[in-house]
Each structure stands twice: as structure tokens, then as C-alpha cells.
Write a structure and sequence with these properties.
The protein is an alpha+beta fold. The protein contains three helices and nine strands.
């Protein structure tokens, strides 16, 4: 079902500092900061050629990652995202196998403008998994 690793998401305490570290210290290609109000996050993508790193910071008081950053004030890996060919087929297969999808079980549109779902970390050894249709 899963294909390539699309990205690893890291919640950071300061996006500008994180951008500096990846761009100016590590020499990576880094996007501009995007503010995704509908998701409650500000993000930067670090392009590594074969995959990406998504640097995330809470946007607004109701951000879904606000408590995560409070528990991890220095930042931490938040989730991994794998590519799938069909999000609808993936949902069907996962439900057949008893896997819970976060939310109402239907996809939402992610940061890349493509359908995504998130799988419950308790069912994957503590790892929050995002599946993105490509």
C-alpha cells in the first residue's frame, strides 16, 4: 500500500531559526514560510531531493500541535508521511484490517493540496502516520 517516504514532520519552537539552520548551516533548499490557517500550522519544507522535511510551528491558540510543542519545548519529530496511489483504496484496506483513522475517517486536503489521512499512533508503535495521495 505505502510507497515512498514523502516527508518527516518536525515541530520546532522557532521557524525562522529552523530555516536558518537548514538553509545557512546545512546548505539545504528551503521554502518560504507558509501559514496554513485551516490546519493551524505554519510550515517550511526542506527539499532533500529524495524526500522532504516539514518544519512546523503552531499557528493560533487552537493549533492541533500547540500541546505537542508544550510537551516538547525544544521541538521533536511529529509524524512521518508516506505516499499512496489512492487514498480511498487505502482507507478501505485499512478499515478492513481494523485500523483507525483520526477524525471522521474521511480524507482532508493537506499542505501539498492533496488528500491525506492520519492513522492513530497507538496502532503503529507510537508513530503518527500521514498517508498522502500522489
Amino acid at each position: 500500500m505505502i510507497g515512498k517516504l514523502n516527508h518527516v514532520a518536525i515541530v520546532v519552537p522557532n521557524l525562522n531559526e529552523a530555516k536558518f539552520k537548514y538553509k545557512d548551516i546545512l546548505g539545504a533548499t528551503v521554502s518560504d514560510i507558509e501559514h496554513l490557517e485551516v490546519h493551524g500550522v505554519s510550515i517550511i519544507f526542506v527539499n532533500l531531493g529524495n524526500t522532504k522535511i516539514e518544519l512546523m510551528h503552531p499557528l493560533g491558540e487552537n493549533s492541533p500541535i500547540k500541546k505537542f510543542l508544550e510537551k516538547n519545548p525544544n521541538g521533536a519529530i511529529h509524524h512521518v508521511c508516506y505516499e499512496v496511489k489512492s487514498i480511498k483504496n487505502s482507507i478501505s484496506l485499512l478499515k478492513e484490517k481494523g485500523i483507525e483513522i483520526i477524525g471522521d475517517g474521511s480524507p482532508s486536503i493537506g499542505a501539498h493540496g492533496k488528500p491525506v489521512i492520519f492513522l492513530k499512533p497507538k496502532q503503529f508503535d507510537g508513530t503518527l502516520i500521514e498517508l498522502e495521495e500522489v
